[in-house]
Design a protein that fits this description.
homodimer; about 190 residues; mainly alpha; DNA-binding; elongated; Tetracycline Repressor, domain 2
Chain lengths: ~190, ~190
Amino acid sequence: MPRGIARDHDEKRGLIRKGAAAYFARHGYDRASMTGAARECGVSKALIYHYYDSKEALLFDILDTHLSDLVAVVEDATGEGLPGLIRAVLAAYEDADAEHKLQLDALGTLPPEMQAPLIAHQRRLVAIMSDAVAATRPGLDPDRLRAVTMTVFGILNWFYMWHRPGRGLSRAEYAALAADFVGAGLKGV
Amino acid sequence: MPRGIARDHDEKRGLIRKGAAAYFARHGYDRASMTGAARECGVSKALIYHYYDSKEALLFDILDTHLSDLVAVVEDATGEGLPGLIRAVLAAYEDADAEHKLQLDALGTLPPEMQAPLIAHQRRLVAIMSDAVAATRPGLDPDRLRAVTMTVFGILNWFYMWHRPGRGLSRAEYAALAADFVGAGLKGV
DNA sequence: CATAAAACCGACCAAGCGGTCAAGAGTGTT
DNA sequence: AACACTCTTGACCGCTTGGTCGGTTTTATG
């Protein structure tokens, strides 16, 4: 009988996924080379191609893992209402800034059939958030409900662009502020 | 005496700037080739290099023009308070979605010395918005003022990501909703 | 009308890219 | 111990890229 895959196969794959995500996010997915990503991970380029079929497959795994985690976290927080959701999302982005950034500006470079399952994850997030908004502020027509839901995502997704750890409000402090802001804002629309 | 530059020099440069911006935004700056941009503009690649020194110089001109316009528009709207500012920014993004998208995800690819003047424009925008927020909601400490200001920018900058012309709320309708949302939200922080 | 520079182009180039390959080293199974 | 397969690598390949160059056409100026 042949030997199977190594016991630490998944860990090494995970290391490459994490290292490449950081490298891709820092340099921009298109501009970042596989040679550079390999160096960042401390392995040869050929080894990455042992674990992944292509640069696109690697990106897909990064985004799929990230979005799956995010959906799981958010589904667990549905019981805590809109403020709980906002807190959960911002907390989940911690240690995942790179993956989050990639999701926002590299997902579109994947071929449509690879995008589809990732977009399905995103839709699930939007649906959960939309339900929480509708529960907090009933009676909005569909167009306005969607607009307000996306407004909340704008707030959350923008956070990584301006926040610098150790400066200004902490993540948790901002989560509280954002929850207050959204809660009050919903009364005005 | 030699002949000077053509009378329509600036117009042609502007056409290249606009065409390239659309092409860059559609395909992503890094992924988009100068050959493709030239085809989009209906000129040869060599002609673009007659008007611009490099791909980076072209991107710089796109962003500098866009941000200068934006600052001008916003400075004109300072008298109309925070709702007027929100309306003005969203209106200014019309017909400039491409430039806006490029600003968000390609500015960072420029070398620092080219980024500097663009970031100065951005800071001016932030300062104006911050003043409007402070006027609407006095008494916020600096950290929270900054956080709320960035929250507003998150709302505005995210708009192009989810809005599809002709579907859902119009730009103007969303501007009104966003102004209401922010106005009410400020009372909750 | 002569002229010198701007406006414009097709063909070309070096460099870096994603990806492949042949081969050696390491290891679970028999 | 022998096998069969995974793990790991440096060298390599075809292709696209940003950018250049020599040359032709056009036009403002004297």
